[in-house]
Design a protein that fits this description.
Layout: H1 2-28, H2 36-55, H3 62-73, H4 76-83, E1 94-95, E2 98-99, H5 100-120, H6 130-171, H7 178-193, H8 199-215
Antiparallel strand pairs: 1-2
Length: 216
């Protein structure tokens, strides 16, 4: 029973690692400079593998991790070629109707699921076979795209709502109710906890809300 609880807790921890890195990868996907996002997402994916190794108490091997990422996602040149469309205004943020943020998040999710499943079945870096797990990666990539689209939509909605709140508070000549003020702080705090806001974005919005409260 104790061992089962340990396995459950470990899986939960691994899922959290994957989700957090997926969110971070989606943020990196918004970087408007070709190549820069490629290296950013790659670094995030490599750090995710490093964290998963810690969860499953395995030695992390950076060179092998990079090799597996390349084997699962395709060659770096091919990925960079797809991102080259970012030089094209507006259209550059989309590939086949899917944003780069979604693709980055989906790929990160799929890689995380592949490593999690491999580690949970007793696998290590020594017996990792990318060709055998490529089909599983592709399946998880499709699921990851759906998840990333939902997260992107939720994140955009939360950002828009937060900005709207700040704008209304700034324009409002009457003193906002304390409960509304607290509610908005709680709202952006939740967004930060969900990974939808970075520390800097959270502090900026928090400052705007507090300033608006003081100046009305």
């Amino acid at each position: 029973m104790a061992e089962k609880k340990k396995d459950t807790a470990r899986t939960s921890h691994a899922n959290s690692v994957i989700k957090n890195h997926m969110i971070w990868a989606m943020g990196a996907g918004f970087i408007p400079v070709p190549v820069a996002d490629f290296f950013a997402v790659g670094a995030i994916q490599l750090d995710m593998i490093r964290q998963l190794c810690k969860v499953y108490e395995l030695d992390f091997k950076e060179s092998e991790g990079k090799a597996v990422i390349t084997a699962l996602t395709g060659s770096g040149l091919a990925r960079l070629g797809a991102r080259a469309v970012k030089f094209i205004p507006v259209v550059g943020t989309m590939i086949g109707g899917v944003t780069l943020a979604v693709l980055s998040g989906a790929s990160t999710y799929a890689i995380g699921e592949v490593f999690k499943t491999h580690f949970e079945t007793g696998g290590t870096f020594l017996d990792f076979d990318p060709s055998r797990l490529k089909k599983y990666y592709d399946e998880k990539f499709e699921k990851g795209k759906q998840m990333a689209r939902e997260m992107e939509k939720k994140g955009k909605k939360q950002h828009d709502e937060a900005e709207e709140v700040v704008d209304k508070m700034s324009e409002n000549k009457s003193k906002p109710l304390v409960k509304d003020f607290v509610k908005q702080l709680e709202s952006i705090t939740q967004m930060k906890n969900d990974g939808m806001l970075t520390d800097d974005e959270f502090n900026i919005l928090k400052g705007k809300i507090i300033d608006a409260q003081k100046n009305v």
